[in-house]
Every structure is written in structure tokens, then in C-alpha cells.
Amino acid sequence: MAQCKLRSLYGLYPYKSSMIGLEALSDPSLDWDIVETIGKGTYGKVYKVNNRKDGSQAAVKVLDPINDVDEEIEAEYTILRSLSNHPNVVKFFGMFYKTDNLSGGQLWLVLELCNGGSVTELAKGLLMRSKHMEEPVIAYILCGALLGLQHLHNNRIIHRDVKGNNILLTTDGGVKLVDFGKWTTF
Question: In what residue span(s) does the Protein kinase domain sit (predicted)?
């Protein structure tokens, strides 16, 4: 595949990519309104957003302009774009670029909203109330996570960062794998 020279993901340094061209990404503010902060990750914040056109809700990972994470962002984008069609992998609604002359811009990954929180949050919440997760619940969550991992493995992908914080729950009982920045192939 031919390599094209593009702007860096954040306009900070030259970047070679065959997949991501920021010039082609639309401005997220045309489609999405931020409602509230719902989390903070290694490279930025996660917000609940509303779609301006149809009122649907989603989560958006707004990535800070850090020049050493381009490969992880591209890796996550690759997985989300091609493998989020499985019920146990978070759905991907698109990638956007918001130009900001002050910070160099923001990359937005718009994902399925998983309002049930992470497995880690669930376990900690139960412990704070002196309770524990029942075995059928553990089995259900593990089954969902393993089905998601099987989907990745069937496509020759290894997640490499499976942990409670990267297994999210939906309010309707869904179990979703997230955070694909460290994947590799086999």
C-alpha cells in the first residue's frame, strides 16, 4: 500500500499514514453536541454526546494533542473501522477532526454509549457495599468478553489490554470490549 505524507494527527509534526487523512474528516460540531464528561483516559476525555440530526446519544473519545500516540490512535481506528460489527465489540460511529489553532486540533472517535460502566466500576461499587459479584454475573460478563475476543482472534487480532476497565456494560445487558490502541496481529 502506498504511503502518503499527511499532516500529523495534531498538526505537530510530519506523519506518514496510509489510512488517516485529517483533511478528509468532518468537523464533529456539525453532527454532535457534548452533553457531559463521562470519563478520562490516558490520552484524553470521554464525553456523552447527542447527535444533532436524530437525537441519538453516543460516547466520544476526544484525544489530546500529544505527538507520541499517533500509532495507537491509528491502531484503534483500524480495529474500530473494520471489526466493530460484533455485538461484544463497541460500535464505531466515525472519526472526526476539530480544528483548533490554539491546541493544534482534536481527534474525536465517536463510539457506542455504554451507560452501564466498566466491569472494574461494577466490582468496586459492589465491594463498597460489602457485596460481591455473583458467579452467574461473572460467567455472563466473561462469556461476552470471550465472544468479543473470539471475534478479534478470528480476524487474527490480539487485544493485548484486556482488563476490567476495558470491558464496558450497557444498560440493556450488553458486554463490550473497548480500547484497541495496543492490538497486534498473529
Answer: 32-186
